[in-house]
Amino acid sequence: MACPCPRPLFLSFPKSPAPPLAVPAKHHPSATATVSLSSRPRAVSASSNATPPSPPSSPPPPTDGVGPAAPTRGDVYLGRQLAAAAASGARVRAPEEDADKRRRRKEKRKALAKKTPSGLACCYGCGAPLHTGEEGSPGYVEPATYDLKKRHNQLRTVLCGRCKLLSHGHMVTAVGGHGGYPGGKQFVTVEELREKLSYLRHEKALIVKLVDIVDFNGSFLARIRDFAGANPIVLVITKVDLLPRDTDLNCVGDWVVESVVRKKLNVLSVHLTSSKSLVGITGVISEIQQEKKARDVYILGSANVGKSAFISAMLKTMAYKDPVAAAAQKYKPIQSAVPGTTLGPIQIEAFLGGGKLYDTPGVHLHHRQAAVIHADDLPSLAPQSRLKGRCFPANDTDVELSGNTLFWGGLVRIDVVKALPRTRLTFYGPKKLSINMVPTTEADEFYKREVGVTLTPPTGQERAEGWCGLEGVRELKINYDELDRPASDIAVSGLGWIVVEPLGVPSSDPDGSVEEEGDVRGELHLTVRVPKPVEVFVRSPLPVGKAASQWYRYQELTEAEEELRPKWHY
């Protein structure tokens, strides 16, 4: 039996439409339809009997506009999208804090776009893209060889013409610009090489940073985070085989860690290595295998720090147990004494468990000596054997340093303004650079006469005429409070260092020795002149030689400080 239809309500709505009527849940559907149909005319009639409504106001102007003011289809679509976003609670515009994230994403996409495409064939010796265009440029290959290797899918086994010359000892430079090498052909600038490394900070990788122990301050790359980003860093000190004989590496390792802590660089560990004698290479490989976690490994460092030689030493050591590394030895990067040998990232299949090894272009620094001399003089800056300190004055002479000037080749001039009678300077650096001492009053005339002849580099009269001179001047005041140890080192970027010993010369008069030891505090005044962009550093003395283990003092640390310091290995 159907329920009777409810009596309709008579309401008056002068300004707003009537709300929907509530229908009981138990009503029949047909009854509901009857109500909705019959209520409309009854409501209208009810409104006619009620109080007459107020006269209607003028209609509002159309919001959409007509004619030329009508919205376009795009405006209509945008309005619908904005309305839908507002209805769903989504943010139409990102807040200000998201602007930095969008900027970083944009920079990351732009940097990753500069990464060498995987399908581009490059020279396995230097990383330059292979081509058949300009002969003599990096990456050039004879057209017939290129076509043959391409036909057989063997372009990755091709060595370019420049690398063949470098492997035979020729000095073929290719880097120009601010920090490049004058005198040779310049096919790529320093800025372009830096751009090739810009993508690295956005990669998830393990960074192995190399530093030359002979040029520790000049090759340190203080702003390494600009390239590495937040990636973990393993610090590797190279060329420790060049340190003087009887050097205690325990002292050197502690000195390096203390320098790293002072420079506020956070690293996983520090390793003292030699690519020539393979000292410390096994420890680095163990650290890499433990920390890489299927990530790629990038070898990073300044130019001519020994990256390619380090990779060769790694592959040689790993080849005994890893067949992948053994196969990679056949096509390893070229080693040469020319800074800027590597011109692009070189991918090496070196790990059996995943991840790749990359040799990268060296970071060329304008404040090193290699950036100011001619390309043909570069070999004279590279030490070929163990360093041996050259002392001035020698033990068998009675000459004092005060009032004298010492020339280190044609690259460094040291004027000794104030010193003790037994003060000694010991030079550690390339043996090809001679050291000459003359009175300071005759120094200017001596340099003009002998530069390019006795004082080399620059070598030859032609290069001496175009030489920039020693325009960079730094006045040093070196304090000392102990007479039984060196006061400090004067490190010249890209060359070596000079040890300053207040009482380095042995005394033949015991009474005079006691007299001097009465006043243990003092100050030495030196003036150092170098070419304009070259930097000079004053640092704590590097403990080298047999006597260093006696005067070097280890830092006294608490357990908490010891835990925070990186561990060193060799």
Explain this structure:
This protein has 570 residues and is α/β, with parallel strands linked by helices. The protein is 27% helix and 17% strand. The chain is built from 16 helices and 19 strands. The strands form 4 sheets. Strands 7-8-6-3-4-5-19 form a 7-stranded mixed sheet, sandwiched between helices. The chain has a 5-stranded antiparallel sheet with strand order 9-12-16-15-18, with no helix packed on it. It has a 5-stranded antiparallel sheet with strand order 13-10-11-17-14, covered by helices on one side. Residues 1-5, 8-16, 21-62 and 512-518 have low confidence and may be disordered.
In short:
By secondary structure, the chain is an alpha/beta fold. Residues 1-5, 8-16, 21-62 and 512-518 have low confidence and may be disordered. The chain has a 7-stranded mixed β-sheet, sandwiched between helices. The chain has a 5-stranded antiparallel β-sheet with strand order 9-12-16-15-18, with no helix packed on it. The chain has a 5-stranded antiparallel β-sheet with strand order 13-10-11-17-14, covered by helices on one side.
Element layout with pairings:
Layout (H helix, E strand, L loop, with lengths): L28 H21 L23 H16 L10 H14 L30 H9 L9 H7 L7 E2 L11 E2 H7 L8 E8 L12 H4 L4 E6 L10 H14 L6 E4 L8 H11 L4 E6 L5 H12 L4 H6 L17 E3 L8 E3 L30 E3 L11 E5 L3 E7 L5 E5 L6 E5 L3 H8 L10 H5 L6 E9 L7 E5 L3 E6 L8 H8 L4 E9 L5 E4 L8 H4 L7 H6 L2 E3 L1
Parallel strand pairs: 1-2, 3-4, 3-6, 4-5, 5-19, 6-8
Antiparallel strand pairs: 7-8, 9-12, 10-11, 10-13, 11-17, 12-16, 14-17, 15-16, 15-18
